[in-house]
């Protein structure tokens, strides 16, 4: 009898064990997640933590029926103007709080009381003018705090006290004119500090002293006038410093001493006129230096001597008129040198000495009448040279000596009327030559002797009435694209290599007589090379913007053929040729 009872009990136990998972599954699918009636609650697919979404609900106050297990809470885009004390009571597990893009004007000092697990707070794009000094006292584990795009005019001295775990603080685009000297003293773990778009005019020596872990500091768009010594001296781990769009007139010598890890320094759009010999002393790790849009009038020979790892130097839109001897010496790793729109008028043969790795030099908008002989000698890795939009009138035979590695040269929009023979003789690697919008009247293919690798030749908008193409196949064997639009050509005897892909000829006063017969035959035989229209990119437009250009070969003489396209003229018109 006992054995029978035991079997029955065991059977019941098996049934119980077998039914339990199914019952749980049913309950999991049938029972809704507890949630505020005004919000949506979802468990994270990976962490299984509860996310509560109350965004854009026109809420005028924080709901008081939030699930106590809430891990992340979205309240962005609502209408409440204040956060009273204990706004998030019973949410001890809250890790992420999003209150951005709302109407918040005031936050009670006890609003975040009890949120000891809170790590990430978004308060950006509200209307906050001030914050109580103890408002974050209850959130010791705060890791990131975004307060940008508010109306904050001042920061309480102890606002960030005790927040040693914070790694990101964004105070950008407010109206802060002065920061307490000890504002950041407890933020020893801070990695990124954004103060851009405020009204700061002065940086106290003690302001950043405790930010020993800081890697990125953004001070763009303030009213700073002077960078004094020792302000950044303790920032030994800082990698990026943004000081653009201020009113900086002076950077005192040795201002960046101690910043041994700095890789990026941006001083664009300030009022600098002079760079001292010791301005950049100690920046041994610097890779990028941007000094464009200042009023710098000259560069001293030893200014950049400590920047042996610099890769990019931008000096565009300054007032540098002369490039002295060896002013870039020491920049052996430099790859990009931007000097455009300075109206540089003078350079010396040794101006670019030491730039053994430079790949791009931009001198657009300079005002050289002629280039000094061998001015670019000793630049074995230079592949792009920009000399467009300047005052050049002549290309001499020694101007580009030694540029065997050059791939592209830009000479458009100058006043060049003469290209001396063998001017490009050393450019054996050149693939693109841009001579558009100059004043060239006659050209011979011999002007391009040495350009065995040339593929693109742009000669549109000159005054060329004669272009002798004899031996093009030998002189330019890889030529693929030539643009002769908008010149003064009346005829052209084609002698192009088989590699040719496009020949543009519109905007010339073609004389459709017997001398035009070779061009007609070539055009008719190669309709893809001489198309009637094609899609291309307009100069200065976005890369994905295309325009249609028409490649007409319109006759201007003889009179009875005026207005016709050479390709459409009947063979009878050439029967006497």
Give your account of this protein's structure.
The protein has 577 residues and is mainly beta. It has a domain at 431-577: Leucine-rich repeat, LRR (right-handed beta-alpha superhelix), CATH 3.80.10.10. The protein is built from three helices and 35 strands. The protein has helices spanning 2-30, 472-475, 517-525; strands spanning 40-43, 50-53, 70-74, 82-83, 96-98, 106-107, 120-122, 144-146, 168-170, 192-194, 216-218, 226-227, 240-242, 250-251, 264-266, 288-290, 312-314, 322-323, 336-338, 346-347, 360-362, 384-386, 394-395, 408-410, 418-419, 432-434, 442-444, 456-458, 466-468, 481-483, 502-504, 510-511, 533-537, 546-550, 555-557. The strands form eight sheets. It has a 21-stranded mixed β-sheet, with no helix packed on it. β1 and β2 form a beta hairpin. The N and C termini lie far apart (128 Å). The relative contact order is 0.04. Mean pLDDT is 93; it is low at 1-30.
- Structural class of the helix and strand makeup? mainly beta
Overall morphology:
elongated
Question: CATH topology of the domain at 431-577, what is it called?
Answer: Leucine-rich repeat, LRR (right-handed beta-alpha superhelix)
Q: Would you count the extended β strands for me? A: 35
GO molecular function: insulin-like growth factor binding
Domain LRRCT: 508-577
Keywords: Glycoprotein, Leucine-rich repeat, Repeat, Signal
Signal peptide: 1-19
Fold blueprint:
Elements: H1 2-30, E1 40-43, E2 50-53, E3 70-74, E4 82-83, E5 96-98, E6 106-107, E7 120-122, E8 144-146, E9 168-170, E10 192-194, E11 216-218, E12 226-227, E13 240-242, E14 250-251, E15 264-266, E16 288-290, E17 312-314, E18 322-323, E19 336-338, E20 346-347, E21 360-362, E22 384-386, E23 394-395, E24 408-410, E25 418-419, E26 432-434, E27 442-444, E28 456-458, E29 466-468, H2 472-475, E30 481-483, E31 502-504, E32 510-511, H3 517-525, E33 533-537, E34 546-550, E35 555-557
Parallel strand pairs: 2-3, 3-5, 4-6, 5-7, 7-8, 8-9, 9-10, 10-11, 11-13, 12-14, 13-15, 15-16, 16-17, 17-19, 18-20, 19-21, 21-22, 22-24, 23-25, 24-26, 26-28, 27-29, 28-30, 30-31, 32-35
Antiparallel strand pairs: 1-2, 33-34
């Amino acid at each position: 009898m006992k054995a029978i009872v035991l079997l029955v009990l065991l059977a019941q136990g098996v049934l119980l064990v077998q039914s339990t998972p199914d019952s749980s599954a049913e309950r999991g699918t049938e029972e809704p997640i507890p949630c505020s009636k005004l919000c949506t609650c979802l468990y994270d697919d990976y962490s299984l933590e509860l996310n509560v979404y109350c965004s854009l609900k026109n809420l005028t106050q924080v709901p008081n029926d939030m699930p106590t297990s809430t891990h992340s809470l979205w309240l962005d885009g609502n209408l409440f103007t204040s956060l009273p004390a204990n706004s998030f009571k019973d949410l001890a597990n809250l890790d992420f709080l999003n209150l951005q893009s709302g109407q918040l004007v005031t936050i009670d000092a006890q609003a975040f009381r009890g949120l000891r697990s809170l790590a990430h707070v978004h308060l950006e794009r509200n209307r906050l003018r001030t914050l109580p000094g103890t408002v974050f006292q209850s959130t010791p584990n705060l890791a990131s705090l975004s307060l940008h795009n508010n109306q904050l005019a001042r920061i309480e001295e102890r606002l960030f006290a005790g927040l040693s775990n914070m790694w990101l603080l964004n105070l950008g685009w407010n109206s802060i004119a002065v920061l307490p000297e000890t504002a950041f003293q407890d933020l020893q773990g801070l990695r990124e500090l954004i103060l851009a778009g405020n009204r700061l005019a002065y940086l106290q020596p003690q302001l950043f002293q405790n930010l020993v872990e800081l890697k990125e500091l953004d001070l763009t768009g303030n009213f700073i006038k002077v960078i004094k010594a020792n302000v950044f001296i303790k920032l030994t781990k800082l990698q990026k410093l943004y000081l653009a769009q201020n009113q900086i007139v002076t950077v005192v010598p040795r201002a960046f001493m101690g910043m041994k890890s700095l890789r990026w320094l941006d001083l664009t759009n300030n009022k600098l006129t002079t760079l001292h010999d010791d301005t950049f002393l100690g920046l041994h790790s610097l890779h990028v230096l941007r000094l464009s849009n200042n009023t710098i009038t000259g560069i001293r020979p030893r200014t950049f001597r400590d920047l042996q790892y610099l890769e990019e130097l931008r000096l565009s839109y300054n007032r540098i008129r002369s490039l002295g001897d060896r002013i870039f010496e020491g920049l052996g790793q430099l790859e990009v040198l931007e000097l455009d729109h300075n109206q540089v008028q003078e350079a010396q043969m040794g101006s670019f000495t030491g730039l053994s790795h430079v790949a791009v030099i931009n001198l657009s908008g300079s005002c050289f009448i002629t280039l000094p002989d061998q001015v670019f000698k000793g630049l074995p890795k230079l592949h792009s040279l920009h000399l467009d939009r300047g005052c050049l009138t002549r290309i001499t035979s020694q101007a580009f000596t030694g540029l065997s590695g050059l791939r592209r040269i830009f000479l458009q929009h100058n006043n060049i009327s003469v290209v001396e023979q063998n001017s490009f003789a050393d450019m054996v690697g050149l693939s693109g030559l841009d001579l558009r919008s100059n004043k060239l009247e006659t050209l011979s293919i011999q002007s391009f002797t040495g350009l065995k690798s040339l593929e693109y030749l742009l000669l549109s908008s000159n005054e060329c009435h004669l272009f002798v193409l004899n031996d093009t196949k030998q002189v330019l064997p890889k030529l693929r694209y030539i643009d002769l639009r908008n010149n003064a050509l009346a005829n052209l005897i084609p002698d192009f290599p088989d590699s040719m892909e496009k020949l543009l000829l519109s905007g010339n006063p073609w004389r459709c007589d017997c001398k035009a017969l070779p061009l007609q035959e070539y055009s008719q035989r190669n309709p893809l090379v001489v198309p009637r229209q094609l899609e291309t990119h307009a100069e200065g437009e976005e890369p994905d913007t295309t325009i249609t250009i028409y490649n007409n070969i319109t006759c201007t003489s003889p009179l009875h053929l005026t207005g016709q396209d050479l390709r459409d003229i009947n063979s009878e018109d050439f029967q006497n040729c």
